């Protein structure tokens, strides 16, 4: 770890994220396939400048939707542009490099009010690891949404902006927001068929107010609580548009997105209202090999995130179990030291009343199969939704705290810290009256988590309440790469005399 590092009292804004000034942009009218084939000719021009202008025209007046372009070498050309789909108010990460990805409606389909055109400015041989490409990665991009009328005139939205994501291993200030179970709301209570998410607007408001100090958001399940009412999805995407139009907004799938009898969900309840995961899978992009599975890994600078899908089988021997192990095992901890596990249902530890009544303190069959992976690959923090409150455990393995420290961890954790962050907005769940040795902090309130990686050796964890945005719980981790390599119980292969 860096010598002389001092934890700041307040994390200052790392760099100015004020959008670029409005630049002249010629409306694109050519067929998008011809424009795509011109990318090679633009290569040298792109590398010679620090910022680029993206011109987009689209077939929608719904300006809360974010039209987007993929920045990655293996998605160049009309072959891939034909497969892009429309998403609502949503930025995301794409591929192994964790690049910002932006999407348009299917570019091969004629639109009712004119042909969609696109002009993208990025090198055709884009490579996240090259020095030249890294300069593109750090660029800020501005964009507008447009609708072409029959008479050829365009109606334009306001100008939006985003900053390209850090490449894997990049040493820079990186700030991550994580919560679950937020839902949506209306300030005046209108358009509500069920007022189940009373604090949703509070969480959204806090994130918008602190947007310049946020780099990426993870909403880990129970996203909207639409349960079959598609208008609720429109309401939700409008609510988060100020966030998701500028920052990557990644989601996980929860019971209210996926569960329905006879559809392959692990739980045979009706919590999705018949959506069966279809809306979540098509409105929000995630870099999953199989979109229907919705489990995925993604890299963001010094972070590796392994996102599980708790509504599908995760037990040992399952397809998802193999994915989880591969995600944890494949990260280079020297470049990406902060290994984070995300899931909707609690697969670790919780003191909520309904788990305690079952005698499990977790989703039944949760940690029994997965804790060996968390321990073996030294997962730093596991975060969950589903339970509508906040709780933090000590670094723990097999119900035993591996450290007695509570706020300033130095060196190996020797276990995984488990966090319940399901208080994004939904009505709260009561804690059981029992006290456990592994539970360090409990809060019966709505809130969210913020992770700040200062460098490869220093991480700050903060829990903030949605009501005021203030920090109510926090801890730090200070260590270097050799600490990650340290063998602890069940984290290294057994060594015998025969070996």
Automatic annotation (TrEMBL):
InterPro entries: Calcineurin-like_PHP, Metallo-depent_PP-like, MPP_PAP, PAPs_C
Cofactor: Zn(2+)
GO molecular function annotations of the record: hydrolase activity
Source species: Castanea mollissima
Annotated SUPFAM superfamilies: Metallo-dependent phosphatases
Superkingdom of source: Eukaryota
Record keywords, A-Z: Glycoprotein
One Pfam family per UniProt: Metallophos
Domain Calcineurin-like phosphoesterase: 175-390
Domain Purple acid phosphatase C-terminal: 415-474
This protein's name: Purple acid phosphatase
